Amino acid sequence: MSSPSIEARLDRHLLQVEKPGRYVGGEYNSVSKDWAQTDVKVALAFPDIYDLGMSNLGIMNLYHQVNLQPDMLAERVFSPWLDMEKVMREQAIPLYSLESKRSVRDFDLLGISLPYEQLYTNALNLLDLARLPVLSRDRDESHPLVIAGGHACFNPEPMADFIDAFVIGEGEEIIVEIARVIGKLRGRPREAQLREIAKIQGMYVPRFYDVEYYDDGTVRSVHPNQPDIPARILKRIVVTLPKPFTKFIVPNIDTVHNRAPIEIMRGCTRGCRFCHAGMVTRPVRERPVPEIMAAIAEIVQYTGFEEISLLSLSSSDYVWVEELAEEVNRVYADAGLSLSLPSLRIESASADLLEKIGGTRRSGFTFAPEAATEKMRDLINKYVPDDQVIQTARDVYSRGWRTIKFYFMIGHPEETLEDVQAIIDLCLRTLNEGTKILGKKATLNVGVSTFIPKPHTPFQWVPQDTRRSVIEKQALLKQQLRRGGMHLRWNNIDDSEFEGWLSRGDRRLGRVIRRAWEKGCKFDAWQDQHKHGAWLQAFAECGIDPDFYNHRGRGLDEVFPWDHIDVGLHKKFLREDYLMSLQGETRADCRDKCFACGILPKFAKARSTTEDMAWECPPVKPISERQRARRAAIPLSAIG
Questions:
Q1: What CATH code is carried by the domain that includes residue 496?
Q2: pLDDT per position as a tens digit, 602-633
Q3: Closest CA to 526 of 500, 495, 499
Q4: Cα gap 192→174, rounded to integer Å
Q5: Residues spanned by the domain of 309
Q6: Sign of CA dihedral 63, 239, 148, 113
Q7: Which of 167, 185, 213, 389 has its CA 20 to 30 A from that of 46?
């Protein structure tokens, strides 16, 4: 039964806020279990508003996995928007879950999703609204255990002061293991709970590690401070992807992505040197077509969503992508179902594939060339000739699609204004092809982000491009790409600087994050809410130079704050790939040649604990002859 004090106060005040539907729960397909009859209670928090969190597949997967357990329940928590936060603080309403309206403090476990660094201050604000101490050392066994997971946690150090334990890697299985440990040790001292949590493969407990620094501010070492604690934390790998989640909660209000996602493939074999996700999600695991088709049928039955998004880092590299598109087209061509394939690669998106997708309701296509000169494409290990880009654009426009979206990056290592001008020239050529076919109906949307060097990638050694250089490059793009039929979007330089600080930060940044939050920083992912000046003041008050994190090249032998986090890749492999980039050398697709990055032996070990079967390399079906023919125009040594 829900708490009458919270619910009664909500009834009196919800009409004072924008979109009260964010805060009431009760949605179709939400799960409400008997609180008194369920042993372990888990609150799953996405530290941003409902409109964004409800579109996050990761938190929905965890919600589903926990609620499958008969002795557990999972309920959702989101950050309230500014107007609702004001009401909650004024009326003494603690942060609560949507399903039962229980205070977060009543749960055994609080799991916070951190897919990107801009959520850090929101996570602190969320803890404070829940009436929990923001510092981990100030919480004890009377408080819920606070864990965090997500891609930002592959460098957990900036948030180490606030989180009790981090999930490193994939969460579908480990979330249940953590909940079982907490249920078994309920009431035991927090230190004892954390020692048991630290025994779970993939769990990192920061208080059990000390950091030492050199006089120049670089890290000397990160090492355990207690016996029986591993020196390195190997990421958790789900050997076989679980059955796709299909009973999506139908939201009370419109959300950012009003569609149902299905992950068709996890991981990527391309080896783009800038891509954090491509490195940390290895190895590739693919779902068979019948499993995906069954999931689509369940989604249509249970939710009524009219758009299905087939998710992966490189959707057109999914081995059975054409067979899948053909089957979806056959079954749903007359049903008004829209199929989207984000993250298509230009060199593997064939005219045949576009034709098959065309049987469903049409929208635009998104491609990410990232760079527009041969030098830059070789450097980032993503080689696609301009002629192939133009031919793909012709294929799209000639089949009736009016809109293509391109993603590029500026600020890559060694980049010049000539490389930026090449982006402009390629975009103008592309729109010109569309105009020839569709006239003024053809449009090209161009998104240009600023490159942020990320941990666990070959570019983790490079300095981030300077503020002055990025502004100059953006000015060139704005001057020439803001015209009829062309829509340009770019990153705010303040946002890029901010993300850079936190991406490669160390444990000392915890003081800066807390001070920035105390100065009112939150919703940093929202451009109109990000207070860059307050962040700079927080750095100054903490005596830390932000340029140390962004604009400093790293020596090849430098110890990184995240070196004790093992994502499965050898640092030697990443270092070699970085040195190759300096020479303009590329690596082939991992499906064509194994480069011994380190993931396969570790995946084989994970597999051997769950299945008694031999292991073969590579861990994915090789590309088909049809896919290989599509790439034939590109030298094998240049594929990446």
A1: 3.30.750.200
A2: 887 776 554 433 333 344 445 455 444 444 33
A3: 495
A4: 19
A5: 259-360+588-640
A6: negative
A7: 185
